[in-house]
């Protein structure tokens, strides 16, 4: 399969792009080079290769969720710009 200038023009139209003739030629050449490179995969013998969704096994690398005590409310409110009834007071965002 190869990409033609008409294919590039069609995709450019769908993407609402205005391409010059030079750009159309350049993109046609680049896309054909990509396809030619991808065709090398057809040379590989994949008969005994099991299909996978990822080449490496996926492992969760996050640490365990451990419960720990929070800061006391008095210490937290020391950093608050304004406080009311033991809560941080912020400007209203709704009318």
From TrEMBL:
<dbReference type="GO" id="GO:0050566">
    <property type="term" value="F:asparaginyl-tRNA synthase (glutamine-hydrolyzing) activity"/>
</dbReference>
<dbReference type="GO" id="GO:0070681">
    <property type="term" value="P:glutaminyl-tRNAGln biosynthesis via transamidation"/>
</dbReference>
<comment type="subunit">
    <text>Heterotrimer of A, B and C subunits.</text>
</comment>
<comment type="similarity">
    <text>Belongs to the GatC family.</text>
</comment>
<dbReference type="Pfam" id="PF02686">
    <property type="entry name" value="GatC"/>
</dbReference>
<dbReference type="GO" id="GO:0016740">
    <property type="term" value="F:transferase activity"/>
</dbReference>
<dbReference type="InterPro" id="IPR036113">
    <property type="entry name" value="Asp/Glu-ADT_sf_sub_c"/>
</dbReference>
<keyword id="KW-0436">Ligase</keyword>
<dbReference type="GO" id="GO:0006412">
    <property type="term" value="P:translation"/>
</dbReference>
<protein>
    <recommendedName>
        <fullName>Aspartyl/glutamyl-tRNA(Asn/Gln) amidotransferase subunit C</fullName>
        <ecNumber>6.3.5.-</ecNumber>
    </recommendedName>
</protein>
<comment type="function">
    <text>Allows the formation of correctly charged Asn-tRNA(Asn) or Gln-tRNA(Gln) through the transamidation of misacylated Asp-tRNA(Asn) or Glu-tRNA(Gln) in organisms which lack either or both of asparaginyl-tRNA or glutaminyl-tRNA synthetases. The reaction takes place in the presence of glutamine and ATP through an activated phospho-Asp-tRNA(Asn) or phospho-Glu-tRNA(Gln).</text>
</comment>
<keyword id="KW-0547">Nucleotide-binding</keyword>
<keyword id="KW-0648">Protein biosynthesis</keyword>
<dbReference type="InterPro" id="IPR003837">
    <property type="entry name" value="GatC"/>
</dbReference>
<dbReference type="GO" id="GO:0006450">
    <property type="term" value="P:regulation of translational fidelity"/>
</dbReference>
<dbReference type="GO" id="GO:0005524">
    <property type="term" value="F:ATP binding"/>
</dbReference>
<dbReference type="GO" id="GO:0050567">
    <property type="term" value="F:glutaminyl-tRNA synthase (glutamine-hydrolyzing) activity"/>
</dbReference>
<keyword id="KW-0067">ATP-binding</keyword>
<keyword id="KW-0808">Transferase</keyword>
């Amino acid at each position: 399969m190869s990409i033609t200038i008409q294919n590039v023009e069609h995709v450019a139209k769908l993407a609402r792009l205005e391409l010059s003739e030079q750009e159309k030629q350049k993109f046609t050449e680049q896309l054909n080079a990509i396809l030619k490179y991808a065709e090398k995969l057809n040379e590989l013998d994949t008969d005994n290769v099991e299909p996978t969704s990822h080449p490496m096994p996926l492992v969760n690398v996050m640490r365990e969720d451990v419960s720990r005590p929070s800061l006391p409310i008095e210490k937290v409110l020391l950093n608050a710009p304004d406080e009311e009834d033991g809560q941080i007071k912020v400007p209203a965002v709704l009318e």
